[in-house]
Amino acid sequence: MFCGEAMTTVNITRDILHRQIRDKRASGFQRAYHVTDPFIKRLGLEAELQGHTGCVNCLEWNERGDLLASGSDDQHAVIWDPFKHKKLTTMHTGHAANIFSVKFLPHSGDRILVTGAADTKVHVHDLTVKETIHMFSDHTNRVKRIATAPMWPNTFWSAAEDGIIRQYDLRESSKRSEVLIDLTEFCGQLVEAKCLAVNPRDNNYLAVGANGPFVRLYDIRMIHNYRKSVSQGTSAAVHTFCDRQKPIPDGAGQYYVAGHLPVKLPDYNNRLRVLVATYVTFSPDGTELLVNMGGEQVYLFDLTFKQRPYTFLLPKKCQTSTGEVQNGKTTNGVANGIHLPTSHIRFAGSKLCSSSAELPPHLEKIKQQANDAFARQQWTQAIQLYSLGIHQASSNAMLYGNRAAAYMKRKWDGDHYDALRDCLKALTLNPAHLKAHFRLARCLFELKYVAEALECLDDFKGKFPEQAHSSACDALDKDIKAALFTKTESADDKKSNSSIRFHSFSRKESIPEDELVLRERSFDYKHRYCGHCNTTTDIKEANFFGSKGQYIVSGSDDGSFFIWEKETTNLVRILQGDESIVNCLQPHPSYCFLATSGIDPVVRLWSPRAETECENGRVVEDMDGAAQANQRRMNADPLEVMLLNMGYRITGLRGVGPDGSDDEDSSEGQVQCRPS
Questions:
Q1: What is the rounded CA–CA span in Å between residue 208 and residue 146?
Q2: 635 found inside a domain
């Protein structure tokens, strides 16, 4: 069939409507419309839902996926029939400011809707009579997110910028909320709770995001049981819901953080860019936690196989140079026994044969394509190809070493830390990997672990004496010693037993010891997704797409939304979703169907287009260019951001590097952002 001919292919949503979603025979049909790579490649705009008069800040599907709710700056909530592209209900919520969150209350027959807004209020609405039936005024700052749990149909939670997580039970006669978590007790009065989510498979676990790099996971049962016991131990005449001495019991909280972020906080603050978790969500099976880190990238944390940040595993004797606190024990099965520098690495059961074996022909071809992209200084393309190879050959040390080199050349936020992780993985697989060992020293230096970098470099010279006086070695040695000299001059002013890493972000307020311990026990990320920009709004979402969470989607400040493969982390699609900024992306619970919104006063629906359609005007073809521009945008000063928003393209300085081969570790050939 050619373009212009009458098409016999009907769109997916019409198919769904005609087939009657709730029919028992629909399970095979549902599998046929599962989120797959061909469908992602054909994803396009299906409809624009008109009905709001302000920015649409939140979207929510009901459990069956036949209704979509939206909330807006216009203080109205709208219920849509997404398959007929029809507005069913519009109601003023009673809020006096922007709505930031809407949630259907589970098992309410889609009758009860909960909203949270910038007026500090949480409202509960009965959609059948279009009335607000409960109004809660317990927060003292903007309410950013509401969370619900299928297991508890009468209970929901709110997160607000007063730093409080509140719990509501509509069965309580008082209709008042209780403080579940008070982040101000851990982080001081400046902390703001921005987002929260309940684990869909085990509703006892609640994830909370706030300003700062740490994401918190709480066991709600442990908190309630602890407070029950505290309350029973006090006078019956005094109700104590929150014990000020220990508000959260030991073991009830776990922290997650990208390993490089705590030590980078002063740099981010100096660049007028703050770190804040703008969205958290669990994978469909509840084993992973996805975080959109404002001012940085999107991170995936594995809740089952927990990984300690590599920067926590530095030897204790080196900590005096950086002020780091060393936690002596690691409990995960991935990085146990790995210590820096490499003279202390224990490679349990590593086999050279497994890492040096030849790749099968199809992977050898991918590796060569990656090497060619590296030689052309196309760092992102090289990283994606190496990642594809690693996904299929996870025990090949050369692929990790090569990808580390590409990360170090590209130098996006977090790239040097990812390179450090790759170097350590390569050395675990092949302790004799010369390039990985040298790059490790360079990564430590770039991450400001200067004394550790020197020790690692000295160890490298001892193991590879023929390289000890190479130009690369001499250059790194010179850089390290210059940095050490500068650090020594100011060392007397920074002598303290406390951790620079953790206290640097608290500004004027001290952090309790319990909080420091939780931060020191943080777990690292599994995957990182790059390309979008998240610095302008603090409600930007990132979500799993697909019934098994095969893809990751996120909005961006450039008006696009990005789609990555979850396991390879490769960017596979960019679509223009808004004239200004895409904030919300809510995938349909069952089908390859996506709702998005942002600054425009419309809701957009996306589905796979017919194979016969000639063009999709919403596709961003130059994905590398868009991602590169977003990295510049994230590192730009306010004037540059303003120019970017006006459509000016700010060109970085491209250095003239050497041949770009695998063994070069200089900083040339990079489109430069402002220095970090």
A1: 11
A2: no
